[in-house]
# Entry
Amino acid sequence: MTKKAIAVLSGGLDSTIASCVYAKEYDIHSITFDYGQKSSKREIKASKEISANMGFKHSVINLEWLSKISNSSLNTNKEIPTLNEDQLDDLKKCSETASKVWVPGRNLVFTAIATSFAESENAEIIIVGWDKEEAVTFPDNSKEFLKKFNNLLKIGSPKDIEIKAPLINLNKLEIVQLGKKINAPMELSYSCYKGNQKHCGVCESCIRRKRAFKQSKIIDLTKYEIN
# Structure
């Protein structure tokens, strides 16, 4: 019997590559969350295309309530913060931008819901795209968060389920290199916070994506409004 997995797939670079790491070993059901984010339509479109490309079952989960309690620029009328590439390693600046895009309890909620799917479908693992570079300013991407959530599952779930974060020790450069190595459909992924047809090229997510491709010397097929 084929082993089953649930993948939390935003359609972004990290979750795409993380999911593809396990594509040959597991029958994957990818889930994408619509929490009123500006990029929801583009993220859902990307996730559907990635899932079709990789042979994943795909579902969209509506979390409209999350946008109603959020103060984040991702799912309110507040302006998305922008950065320059030379600010990406400025911890103070990046902490400021992270606070402006922080959605209350997002990864806690996403992972808890993924656990429900995993229990229901007898999936052995939940795949997430948490990584080392994002963990600097987003604690719910960290090794500690991963470890403690897995400990929680041991207590709170009757099933033997483990969260797998294959990018947890990698920065964006290394993530892109891994994506190339495993032939992940990175060109189908969508990382921009703004949700336009093209990546804006100036939000932090776009800047990190651009830098990773540039540093890796891997061709970036992403279309940006501002290069």
User: Anything to note?
Assistant: Residues 3-216 form a domain with the Rossmann fold fold (CATH 3.40.50.620). The chain has a mean pLDDT of 97. Residues 106-121 form the longest helix (16 residues).
